[in-house]
Structure formats: C-alpha cells, structure tokens
C-alpha cells in the first residue's frame, strides 16, 4: 500500500495518538513426517492493525485482512478507544524516525528452487530415519519473508524487511511402550546458506532419541545441577525475564515490591541483560513495534536488580526510560512488553572447575518446555547426565527442574566463561510465537528439586 | 470464472474453503478496562489433487488468483501421495452453530459483563488483580469441492476468560477459568464461583510430607492426566504409530471407570457442528469404553492412510491443511458426590492446577510437574494450600486403578469435560 494512503488515514484519525502497521508475510514450508513428504506449501498472509489512544478513554484496536477500507479501520479503532473507561494512559516521549531497512540480498530465498529446499530437508530426514528405532520424524524446512510498514501520528514511518530461514528436526524413537523424542534445529534471520550442512545436527538428534530409550528416569530428589547454555538461557528468559517485563509490574503494588530496583537476586557473579541490537539474533531489530529504537538493557548487575523492560506506556507510567521492548507477534496483535535477546553474561568459571567438586549431581541439557507461575517454575530439560565423582556419567531422561525462582537465583554459585546464544527460541507470552533469542554460559545451581520416580 | 472451476481444469480433485469473521473483544487488565478490539478476518484455502498428490495453499488479504493457483500447483507437484477422496454432500447432524441474537448485542453489554467479573473477584480478595476478556465472534465458513459438495455454515461464539493474580511478598496465587458458548450465557457466574472457592481455599497455608499418597485431581488439575489421552486418540498420532494406543484397540487400558467420547452434537458448544471443515458429517464417537480402547479421531487424510473412514473430525485453521481434532471431549462422570470422595481421604493432596502440562514427553503418558495450585486434604477436609510440591507418574500405570470419579464435572478450557479423579496412590515430592 502506498505511503500517501497510510498518511491520509492517519490524518483522518480523531484519536490523540494513532498507529498503523501493515504486514505481508510469505511463508514456504516443506515438512517430512516419517518417510512421508507431508507438506510443501507457500502461503501469503496479509493484513494490518490500527491502534488508537484517546487520553480520557483508552486503547482501541482494529485488525483486518481487507486493506481497502483503512479509513474505516481507523475510525473503528477510535470508537473502540472511546468506549474504554480505564486509568488514563500516557506515552513516554520518543524521537520519531523515518527509515527503510532492506534485508541483505542473500536472504532472498525466493530465488532458490522449491526442488532444492525439498531435497535438502529430505536428506536430513533420511539421516533421522537411518536409526533403526526411530519410528517417526518431523523434519521441517521453512522460510519466511515479512515486509512490515509502521507509521504513527507523531511522524514515524518505518519499512522493514524481516527474513527468517529455519530447519528443525524431531526424532521419535520407540521400544514397546517406551517412546522418546529428541529435537534440535535453527531458525535465524539470515539466508539459505545457514541451513546447509546440518547433517551432524540431524545425526545427533537421531542418536539422542535412540539413546534415551535405554536411559533411566532421573531419581527424584534435590541435587546440585549444572545447566548447559541452552537450558540456562531458557531458564533466564522464562523464570526471570518475564518478571522484568514492566507490564507485569506496573499495575501491581505487590509485584513492584517484589521487583523493586536494588533488590538482591543473586550473588555478585550474576549479570543478566536484554539486548535487541546484537547482530544476527532472533530478537534483533532496529526498532520495536512502536517505532522505538531497540538497545541494551541491563536487568541484573552483580546480583542486584537494576532495570526492567518497557513499552512507551509502561515507561511513562513508572517514570523510567523507554527500552524499545514493545513487540507484536503479528498484525493481529498490538505490541506488548516482550524480551528480545535475553542472556546471562559470561563469568569466569570453566566447566571442569564447576563439575569437579560435585559427588552426585545432574548435568541438565537443552530445554523442551517450561512454565512459571511467577515465583514457581518447572522446566523440562531435553535430556541430562548424572554427575558422579566430578565426572559426567550416564544419560538420564525425564529431567524436570522445579523450584522457587528467588531461592534458585541465589543458589547460582558458578557462572561459566562460555556464553552461547540460541538459534531457536519462541516466546509465547499472550500472543503466541514471537522470535526471541536466549543465551547463557554453563551455570551451576545448588539444591535443585528434580521430579522423577 | 470462479476459483473452483479454474482449479477443476488443472486438478483431478479440488476444494475451496473460505472463512470470514468479525469479532469484538473487551479486555480488562489489572481491574481496569484496557482495550476494545475489533477483528476482521477473511481468507481462502485451496486443496487440489494432481497425479494423485495432494497440494495445499492459503491466503488472506488481497492475494492474486494467479499466485494462489501457482502456489497450489507447486505444492501438489511435491505433495503427499494419499488416496484421499473429497466427500459428496451428505446430510449432517442437526446442531445449532449460530445464534443471530449474539450479533446484535452492543459492545457496552460486554463492558458490563467484564465489570461484573472484576467486581465479583475483587470482593473475594481486595488485593486481587483481575484480567478479563469478553469476546463475541460471528462468521461463516464455506466449502465447495469437485464432488459437488457445497456447505455454508454460519458460526457464533461468546467467550469469557478470566484470571486472578494476587502477590503478597514472594507469595503468588494465579487462577484462571473460561466459558464458551454460541450464545450469550450466564455460565460465567459458575466460573466465578469456582474461582472464588479456589481463592478462599488458598488463603490458609498447609504443609505436606513427601511420599506415595492418595491424590485427588480437580477437573483443571486433571488436564495433566487427560492430555496424554487426547494425544493417544488423535488419528494423526495413530497413523504415525507413535500413539501408545495405536496397536491396543479392544484392550483394557485403564480402570473400567474411565469412559471417553467425542460429541459434536452437544447444544450450545462452539465446537459442535453438522459437518466438519472437510464437509464430512459429524457424529458422536466412543474413544474409551469402560477403560477399553474403542477408537480414534480421523480426518480425511489420516483415514485414507489408515484405510478407514473419516470420523468427521477434520479441523483447520486458515493457513494449515486440515488435521484431526476433537469437537467436545467428555470423560464420563462417576456416581460419587465430591463431598463423599473427599470425606474418604484421610491424608492426601488435592491438585487444582499443574504447571507445564504438555512439556516433557506427554505422548508416553509420563508426567513430572510442579503444582501451581494444590491443597492438603486431612481427615476428609481441605485444610489449606501447599506450595513447592511436584507429582510424577505415568497415566498408563496410574490410571489402571482409579479410586473414584465425582458426579460433578465441568468444561476445562472449553476443550474437555472432566470430573474430579481420585487416584489411590501417586508419588508426591514436597519441599514445603
């Protein structure tokens, strides 16, 4: 849609503040399920959102697929905003930007023939199927190219191309009623080259599914645990990161007390950061979905809570600086406070030091799920190993860590020197899957409760 | 020329599915009305068979017909070789799916309902932070295929989703409930009552040791047991051979008290319907009868691959090909009043919300989860909330013996109707 029509629609708005975001999202997927090529499809998802603010009313939102009647959608959003009778909303002042961000030329996957994409993922899938006990697979190739136009009534006008290319492998191994799964892959804002040469990754996934068949369930109890970077990254996102999102805190005096800046959360070795400006990561963009520049926000510095993540609304409400963390999953949603790339900074312990004085513990690896109810969390590692006499010992399954966030953060007594960022990661807060990245080095936590039999 | 005719020239079989929908949502956050949203949806999805291979594409917005057709043919070229046959028109069950009155209700009425929910929950706990979404959606799907099937089905849906959160120091309580209907219903007041009971019970703290003990699951808590069953009866998992029930049809799998069926003919339920989204008539199906595995849920494709008939469970969202999905699952209730079940528990655990349901390896039946909300039962009474507790087990072992099912049951998340379930012994790990 041309710029003049968007600006004219913004001009027609009777609201105090109006923004329009339009998206065209082209997605191609090739999926093997077992030996069967299940899906080869390209879809086009086009739509938009108008969000209006009336200072003595609230937010009104209109989302749509038909782009013909932009003026009507603007009016609909305004009328919805009038209906709201909530607390007055103000927005933190920010500079306005005009910018056009083109994707790098090598991210144009539309030039790669569909036959090549199919052959590539078929090859990886064949590797998974070559393991005799693997009874099912799901091997997915996907590419996505989003063209996003954002404009608001304060003069910001941004067009951004957002590419994403993915390869993901799931292997299910079965032995009677014993069914085990392993999964891994990557999904990155980059070109086709990134998904080439993943044979070793596919082999690792197949082998792990088979190995888990003969692994014992970890014996329930309380252990010292070393988390690998993947699990530690997901942990910091899920268990801590969501609590530093200001929309959780601002409306709730008790939560403000719980998340008061200056509170000690961990030992001096613990540093946690959210940074949407790190090149090549899943949560990275020049601007968030309110047109605010993204950047680095320190959350925990030397064990002490020093910051939190904001939208323009929450920053104004709490009298803190904007951080550029208002993000939306798609045109169906208004932006809410979300993380970008959230990580534990590298410390100075090496893995050998961390493990050497553990007589009996668990080395928990990868994350296949997690849920938190604020202070309580529960995480499933993809797999784990027992630690015996300072050594990585036998593979174990059903490794589920649970506990209280505050106690657990305080129990982190070693932080590794090997910070690694995930190439997968989707945050499900409120609106479903938004690409994020998580990162961490290996970390050691004393006294973690482990489910099991 | 219309799209179906265009496709019929290029394919052996073709199908055109469209949706259109207008919804409005009134959202309260932290006790205050926060947003009002309108959402307009329209889109088209195509399937076609070329050389025996099935292709799929979809688009929303202003897609060009030429791009759509090209995408479908490319998809079919590499598509799935499957002996699928798009169905002719067959009469379906008589079920209301649309209430015209719902479309006429002004948004201000939804604001009133949201306000009522907020006020009711704050009266239980003045420190509560209440979120409510009240949503009304009206629309239509149409389906036409090359076998001459033509469907046009109007749909309506009214939902109230409510959650309450209370933070005191590091102590946090979160509870959630929802109701869904094709008409404006006052059932949300029953959900309010359920939430009120949870909050009241959670006010008193209690302690519990670890070990094996009787565990009573509320319908919400019982989702941790129901999810593996829902995965096991899904025809897609059966067809792939990953369902633990795939080769156990006719076998006694669970306690004879467990009976489960899918019923798309229930009045008022938004998931009910005369035909599924592939044009196949819907019907009630037994899945578990007295603990015996009786059947599975299929769409056209999984049925074709299994050499059987679709059960009318073809479900779809715009951008994905159809897949089997239950309409309204019902786990048959028992004959014992809840009060009597509780009364018989000398010392045990009442599980009212389980964290992380679905993580780990739910297909295998294994679970190992922290509890979001649980209470200690002592001398037949619920004595208070216990925290930092987790449970572990496997439904294929632990549901072989069920001590009791309550005669009370309700819909959980609009998906499945469950009673209270008492298991005689389960491993509980407590750090509290």
3D structure, described in words:
The complex is a heterodimer of chains A (453) and B (432). Helix content of chain A is 21%, strand content 41%. In chain A, helix 3 (114-129) runs parallel beside helix 4 (199-213). In chain A, the strands form 5 sheets. In chain A, strands 1, 2, 3, 4, 5, 6 and 7 form a 7-stranded mixed β-sheet that branches. Chain A has a 6-stranded mixed β-sheet with strand order 12-11-10-15-24-21, with helices on one face. In chain A, strands 9-16-17-19-25 form a 5-stranded mixed barrel. In chain A, strand 11 and strand 12 (304-305) form a beta hairpin. The mean pLDDT of chain A is 93. Chain A is α+β, with helices and mostly antiparallel strands and 453 residues long. Chain B has helices spanning 3-10, 65-77, 100-104, 107-124, 188-202, 223-232, 235-239, 300-305, 338-343, 395-398, and strands spanning 13-29, 32-50, 53-60, 80-81, 129-145, 150-168, 171-181, 211-217, 260-262, 285-289, 292-293, 314-315, 323-324, 329-331, 347-354, 366-378, 381-385, 389-394, 404-412, 416-430. Helices cover 21% and strands 40% of the residues of chain B. Chain B is of the alpha+beta class and 432 residues long. The model of chain B has no long low-confidence stretch (mean pLDDT 94). The longest helix of chain B is centred in the N-terminal third of the chain and has 18 residues, at 107-124. The termini of chain B are far apart. The chains are: A alpha+beta (453), B alpha+beta (432). The interface between A and B is large, with 84 and 80 residues. Strand 2 of chain A pairs parallel with strand 3 of chain B.
